[in-house]
């Protein structure tokens, strides 16, 4: 089981954690929403819970609650800028379909 960060994503997380002045890493998860079923949840983590898996890539800890590992295993997180917009992008090998607006995804039953 792995979660990977591109160099750009790792640098962005390190920069933001430094600006915040605290935190242990990046928390990646999912929530039920949208027309396809799931959307990504990404936030800075201040602690690691008992039910969390921790991956480290590019000097950054990526923390995933164990219930989301089947949805997120193998995901690569990237960070990019387009004009004035900047955001994290996800390459998730488990995604079966995306909704038309790009806000949610589905994963085939396993």
Could you give the topology of this structure?
Blueprint: E1 4-5, H1 7-20, E2 25-33, E3 37-45, E4 52-57, E5 60-65, H2 69-72, E6 76-82, E7 85-91, E8 95-98, E9 105-107
Parallel strand pairs: 1-6, 2-5
Antiparallel strand pairs: 2-3, 4-5, 6-7, 8-9
Keywords:
110 residues; Hypothetical Protein Aq_1857, Chain: A; alpha/beta
Give a concise summary:
By secondary structure, this protein is α/β, with parallel strands linked by helices. 16% of the residues lie in helices and 48% in strands. The chain has a single domain (4-107), classed as HesB-like domain (Hypothetical Protein Aq_1857, Chain: A, Sandwich), CATH 2.60.300.12.
In the CATH scheme, what's the topology name?
Hypothetical Protein Aq_1857, Chain: A
Outline the biggest β-sheet.
4 strands, mixed
Going by CATH, the architecture would be: Sandwich
Q: What form results from the Cα inertia axes?
A: globular
Beta fraction: over 45%
**Structure class:** alpha/beta
Describe it.
There is one protein chain. This protein has helices at about 5-20, 70; strands at about 5, 25-35, 35-45, 50-55, 60-65, 75-80, 85-90, 95-100, 105. The chain is an alpha/beta fold. The model has no long low-confidence stretch (mean pLDDT about 90).
């Amino acid at each position: 089981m792995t979660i990977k960060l591109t160099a750009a994503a790792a640098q962005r997380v390190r920069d933001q954690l430094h600006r915040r002045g605290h935190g242990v890493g990046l928390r990646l998860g999912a929530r039920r929403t949208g027309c396809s079923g799931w959307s990504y949840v990404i936030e800075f983590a201040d602690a690691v819970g008992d039910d969390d898996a921790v991956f480290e890539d590019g000097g950054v800890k990526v923390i995933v609650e164990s219930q989301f590992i089947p949805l997120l295993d193998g995901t690569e997180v990237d960070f990019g800028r387009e004009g004035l917009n900047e955001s994290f992008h996800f390459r998730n090998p488990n995604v079966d379909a995306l909704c038309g607006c790009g806000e949610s995804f589905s994963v085939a039953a396993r």
